[in-house]
Amino acid sequence: LAALERQVFDFLGYQWAPILANFLHIIIVILGLFGTIQYRPRYIVVYAIWTAVWVTWNIFIICFYLEVGGLSKDSELLTFNISRHQSWWSENGPGCVRKEASMSGIKGLDNHSYISVIGCALEYRYIEVMHSSFQILIALVGFVYACYVVSVFTEEEDSFDFIGGFDPFPLYHVNEKPTNLLFKQTYLLLFPTGFSGMEEMNK
């Protein structure tokens, strides 16, 4: 649900890189849930690996909005340089008032408007940082849970009897022949001619 909520606001802000990342995250989460329900440990392992990637991505988003390491929140990196859109929260955050001023009096800027945002109770970059931090927290919890489920499934597979399952009777059995029948077969192999062959051996 948190990923879906984030996807909606990224769509509203035309943030194409986060949109793609959120879409992949939603698909992997569904895959992990399917693996848990359908007893598929491999799917859960894929989810666990993805959580590491997801945490790395969200750390990058935090660094992007906090402008760590030369990154700039005003760059077009998250929109693939397709547009100059910013986060939806930059104009629609809590307490923000959006004002438009006509630029018709300035040469070359006719039919354009200047947009100013004032009165924001919380700057939009901090909202994005909180979103990413929450996603990291959920991912860490999901990773721990995925590891636990995989360990449980592995223990169950190790304790399961693959030959007979949980059935007390095995899938195959060996017909035990009576002792006297086995003795008779051994006697015929040693003395195929019967007592006459035995008398000849005594001579």
UniProtKB/TrEMBL annotation:
<keyword id="KW-1003">Cell membrane</keyword>
<protein>
    <recommendedName>
        <fullName>Sodium/potassium-transporting ATPase subunit beta-1-interacting protein</fullName>
    </recommendedName>
</protein>
<keyword id="KW-1133">Transmembrane helix</keyword>
<feature type="transmembrane region" description="Helical">
    <location>
        <begin position="134"/>
        <end position="153"/>
    </location>
</feature>
<dbReference type="GO" id="GO:0005886">
    <property type="term" value="C:plasma membrane"/>
</dbReference>
<dbReference type="InterPro" id="IPR008516">
    <property type="entry name" value="Na/K-Atpase_Interacting"/>
</dbReference>
<keyword id="KW-0812">Transmembrane</keyword>
<feature type="transmembrane region" description="Helical">
    <location>
        <begin position="44"/>
        <end position="68"/>
    </location>
</feature>
<keyword id="KW-0472">Membrane</keyword>
<dbReference type="GO" id="GO:0002028">
    <property type="term" value="P:regulation of sodium ion transport"/>
</dbReference>
<feature type="transmembrane region" description="Helical">
    <location>
        <begin position="16"/>
        <end position="37"/>
    </location>
</feature>
<dbReference type="Pfam" id="PF05640">
    <property type="entry name" value="NKAIN"/>
</dbReference>
<comment type="similarity">
    <text>Belongs to the NKAIN family.</text>
</comment>
